[in-house]
């Protein structure tokens, strides 16, 4: 085989980079489970009719066929899932009889999209999704719950830059548009689609397009003023009332309900806000996906704004229904690869070692491998990851072997009784190769500091 | 959407079943990391020329294409990987300049095979692979190492039935065949292929086929006698010498080397053997894959023999080479889905709860949700998974809500000062709903027994 080359859009990580991704996944999972979310996995494959219901991503689907497909199975119509929401809705319908509702689940899985690889876009990437799904009804406090859980998880990733979670509510937007006389569904959808361009186009350009779509200039201006409301606290209701008039709010139960849900959400997460963690009402957030019916989320990462939203979701009241029963849900999805891959490739973020081993057990000579194995076994029995040197090189070379991998400690086994050990001592010794300190140690009791047990990931600024 | 149905060959687990699989994966990962194996993931997709080099699985490959593929990218020739060994060999070649050798890695990932779904065969399944790869050379003690690591991991899965790891060595087999006058590579391959059928066909039938392949009857008999050697200790060398004659062994360095490696391996893992864990030399094990060059492994699970080998691998001296440098390796692959799916579907193995929550915090009324949330936050701060009741039903209904999910504890928050609580006490109380015991408790200090912190999986016999 000649040297293989990377496939564009299919990122692969080196071991010390994968350790960063693994710590992200471990932290997410721990927080999700502390909040009672059960982990599931869905198959990678869905029937095309399930995948293509969400029309705007049809172009991105990867189709599957067997190399030697038989006539009867040909064109069976299966593809790889492009998100975890559509398969989860299918899972809920398929297994509803065996699930307890409200059903909280998380999913940490790869998804595939056949789109053109470009900045921050991958063809294969890992997502972390949490959703709560009810049967028939799902109270609004679950919108607050999923927000809190995801913010709690992201806050604990202390090597992440700061971030801003932007929240809006579709009831608020649809209610406000109705108050402006915009009620035709096709017009409402088109206005939302144009407002969603505000992060890419100047406001004046969007305004021109709104007028071209049939809005009079004053209404287009109000639509943009509404989208311009961004506030970190629950003054959002007052600002909307200022813009549209208190009568408009009082006269629209949908607008009032949206405002109430949005204000409740901001109050419900206020205690999680800090310098790195911001939550704002941002009335320009519309989300492209038409299944959202209430709360919608996007998230921007400081210094990585070009990535777009790294964590998105919302409330969907009718994504999963079998005709008789409807399963309303609310969820949020964090783009693990979308964040981790740029962090490791652009900023050089990596674990401080490329192996799990905290200790390299040195090898005096090949005949004494059992003695070194015994030291390793004693350390592992107390959950200290370690490895035995691959060959009995000079100890200086074995120390460099550890250095190249970032292993912090080298263990020198006690010389056999009656011999003079290379370490100059009759006891086992362990060297911290960062400080050079070398001390006598007992394999049955020596323990490294907790922070040395696992590879460490630190933000580049702190290193 | 009408009710979706399962896809044959793509197993999906319910939450309490997925908890079993998750515990298997967690245990494997912990053991692999204690032994210094670094976790990596490779992309799901490989170029077809990489996938099809291993000819005998060509029929099983799933090809990928984009739904709206453009002319220039059409027939680019990518497929889903069908194992983790081929992608790992490609990863080593691609990233060799950034890796330290010997390189120990584990991979816990899904693979796909488009074969006809049948008993124990899936089209999508999870594998757990460990390999050690060297640059140019890799001493034989690494064969012992990967065996020990995998046996250590499987032993710790105490809900698994007992198992037998069967070990053979291709050098031994090829050397022995040469001593019998069988040296033509095509003949050796054909004899190995026929011997590999011994677990499916009667020996007499295999003998007939050996003779049909050109062996004289005596040689066919000796080939079968050799394959019949099964021994749990290092008497294997003596038994081969008895069969072929000491001169044959002395006259074949390859045979002697194979015998020495096999005996060393059996001695090297002898201390891990117990009632549930057996390791035997079994000279009928040949493995279908032609890249193995020394040690080969298969594993049978007690009571699940129809699954075939659940854990297989071996030594490959030339799987990865770029023409200038060769990377010899030894590895072993455990079929996680192949074992977990039959255990949960046939024996009903499942975790004792369907959610991670150890505690359901009850809700007195919707207005007191913040008080229940505060209890939950205090428990989570001490890493106790919990959830707050979804609605303020009667406490009896909330207890049944916990029971249906298998949550062992229900927490009754203290009534607000000045009121008489439903619990009849002014303090917080926690009830173990299995025993009915209810005691006063402080959210800042109450801790359940360690075994209640996580969902538990027990072998059915023990339940």
UniProtKB/TrEMBL annotation, chains A, B:
EC numbers for this chain: 6.1.1.21
Compositional bias per record (Basic and acidic residues), positions renumbered to this chain: 451-463
Presence of keyword ATP-binding: yes
Molecular function GO labels: ligase activity
Catalytic activity reported: tRNA(His) + L-histidine + ATP = L-histidyl-tRNA(His) + AMP + diphosphate + H(+)
Ranges of residues in domain Aminoacyl-transfer RNA synthetases class-II family profile: 20-356
Cited Pfam families: HGTP_anticodon (PF03129), tRNA-synt_His (PF13393)
Origin: domain of life: Bacteria
Residue segments, region Disordered: 418-463
The keyword Lyase belongs to this UniProt entry's keyword annotation: no
EC top class named in words: ligase
Biased composition (Low complexity): 418-427
InterPro entries: aa-tRNA-synth_II (IPR006195), aa-tRNA-synth_II/BPL/LPL (IPR045864), Anticodon-bd (IPR004154), Anticodon-bd_dom_sf (IPR036621), His-tRNA-ligase (IPR015807), HisRS-like_core (IPR041715), HisRS/HisZ (IPR004516)
Membrane-spanning residues: none
Keyword annotations from UniProtKB, A to Z: Aminoacyl-tRNA synthetase, ATP-binding, Cytoplasm, Ligase, Nucleotide-binding, Protein biosynthesis
UniProt family annotation: Belongs to the class-II aminoacyl-tRNA synthetase family.
NCBIfam families, per the entry: hisS (TIGR00442)
SUBUNIT field: Homodimer.
Protein's name in the database: Histidine--tRNA ligase
Source organism: Nocardioides lentus
Organism phylogeny: Bacteria, Bacillati, Actinomycetota, Actinomycetes, Propionibacteriales
Gene symbol of the encoding locus: hisS
């Amino acid at each position: 085989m000649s040297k293989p080359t990377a496939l564009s859009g299919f990122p692969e990580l080196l071991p010390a980079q994968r350790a960063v991704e693994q710590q992200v996944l471990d932290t997410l999972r721990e927080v999700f489970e502390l909040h009672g979310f059960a982990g599931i996995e869905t198959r990678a494959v869905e029937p095309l009719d399930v995948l293509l219901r969400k029309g705007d991503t049809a172009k991105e689907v990867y189709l599957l066929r067997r190399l030697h497909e038989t006539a009867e199975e040909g064109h069976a119509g299966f593809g790889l899932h492009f998100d975890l929401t559509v398969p989860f809705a299918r899972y809920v319908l398929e297994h509803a009889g065996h699930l307890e509702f409200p059903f909280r689940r998380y999913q940490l899985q790869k998804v595939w999209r056949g789109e053109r690889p470009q900045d921050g876009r991958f063809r294969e990437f890992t997502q972390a999704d949490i959703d709560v799904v009810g049967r028939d009804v799902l109270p609004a406090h679950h919108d607050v719950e999923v927000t809190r859980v995801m913010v709690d998880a992201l806050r604990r990733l202390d090597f992440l830059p700061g971030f801003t979670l932007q929240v809006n509510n579709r009831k608020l937007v649809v209610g406000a548009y109705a108050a402006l006389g915009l009620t035709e569904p096709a017009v409402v959808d088109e206005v939302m689609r144009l407002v969603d361009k505000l992060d890419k186009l100047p406001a004046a350009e969007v305004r021109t397009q709104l007028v071209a779509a049939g809005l009079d200039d004053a209404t287009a201006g109000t639509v943009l003023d509404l989208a311009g409301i961004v506030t970190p606290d629950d003054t959002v209701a007052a600002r909307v009332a200022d813009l549209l008039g208190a009568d408009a709010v009082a006269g629209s139960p949908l607008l009032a309900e949206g405002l109430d849900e949005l204000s409740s959400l901001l109050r419900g997460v206020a205690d999680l806000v800090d310098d790195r963690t911001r939550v704002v009402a941002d009335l320009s957030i519309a989300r492209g996906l038409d299944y959202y019916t209430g709360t919608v989320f996007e998230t921007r990462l400081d210094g990585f704004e070009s990535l777009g939203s790294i964590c998105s979701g919302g409330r969907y009241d009718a994504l999963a229904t079998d005709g008789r029963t409807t399963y309303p849900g609310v969820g949020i999805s964090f783009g693990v690869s979308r964040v981790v891959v740029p962090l490791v490739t652009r900023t050089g973020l990596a674990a401080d070692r490329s192996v799990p081993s905290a200790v390299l057990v040195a090898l005096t000579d090949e005949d004494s491998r059992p003695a070194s194995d015994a030291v390793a076994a004693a350390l592992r029995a107390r959950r200290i990851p370690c490895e035995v040197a691959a060959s009995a090189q000079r100890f200086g070379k074995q120390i460099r072997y550890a250095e190249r991998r970032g292993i912090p400690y080298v263990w020198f086994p006690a010389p056999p009784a009656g011999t003079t050990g290379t370490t100059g001592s009759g006891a086992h010794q362990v060297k911290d190769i960062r400080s050079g300190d070398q001390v006598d140690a007992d394999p049955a009791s020596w323990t490294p500091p907790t922070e040395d047990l696992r590879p460490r990931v630190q933000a580049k600024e702190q290193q």
